Amino acid sequence: MRDRIVLMVSIILVALVIIKIYGSFEFSKNSALDVVKEGGYQNTVTTIYLKDRMYDTIFEVLIFSLVVLGVEYHHKGLSHSIYNIKEETIKSISGFFGFLAMVFSLYIAVTGHKYPGGGFTAGVAGGTALMLMGFARGFESFETEFEKFKVNIMEKVMVVIIIITSIIEFRFKADLIIIFQNVFIYFKVMAGTWIITYNLMKHRGIV
Questions:
Q1: Which long-range contacts (CB under 8 A, 24 or more apart) does 90-97 make?
Q2: 134-155: per-residue pLDDT in tens?
Q3: Residue 116: alpha-carbon gap to chain centroid
Q4: Can you give the C-alpha Rg of the chain in angstroms?
Q5: Domain boundaries, the chain
Q6: pTM > 0.90: yes or no
Q7: d(CA 128, CA 117)
Q8: For the residues of 104-154, what is the DSSP string, one character each?
Q9: What are 57-94's pLDDT values in tens digits?
Q10: Is-contact 194 130, C-beta < 8 A?
């Protein structure tokens, strides 16, 4: 846990240096319409939070990572309190809506630069889908998938990738990378939500 805290502090310091070099804390003087025209994307919100105000997005990602780290730390010493849903009807409904939510989350992640949605919204939808699937399959299966995909590591790696792609966007004005940033944020938020859900299900039962 100490290593994770050191890693997060280091990432935050790097982000501050990046913003100091390439960013600006001044509010944009352009109107939303001007920003959209310059960015070239239909979704005004995505253009602003991944281009005109990217440093805000970086800190939102880092804050969420700190929340995930806090949940992990808080539950580390608690005893297990696992409860699996036994009602087949509820399990079937949870699995069905979990699948729909996952498909929907992927859609709004890859089309966030054009239509309402984006990485943060898609990540929450994806995390909700994983929670519903966990209800349907049982905690044992949920934990097996959690460990198989090394979600703890993936969540931290996504933070680094988002910061690196932000440097590229700041330095080279690579507008096309915004599309990929939405997807990276999607996986990061979904992984963070998965970690929180996993800890709550493991130590507090079905919440």
A1: 90/135, 91/135, 91/136, 91/137, 92/136, 94/132, 94/133, 94/135, 94/136, 95/132, 95/133, 95/136, 95/137, 97/132
A2: 889 888 888 899 999 999 999 9
A3: 17
A4: 18
A5: 2-204
A6: no
A7: 15
A8: HHHHHHHTTTTSS--HHHHHHHHHHHHHHHHHHH-HHHHHHHHHHTTHHHH
A9: 778 888 898 889 888 888 888 888 777 888 889 899 99
A10: yes
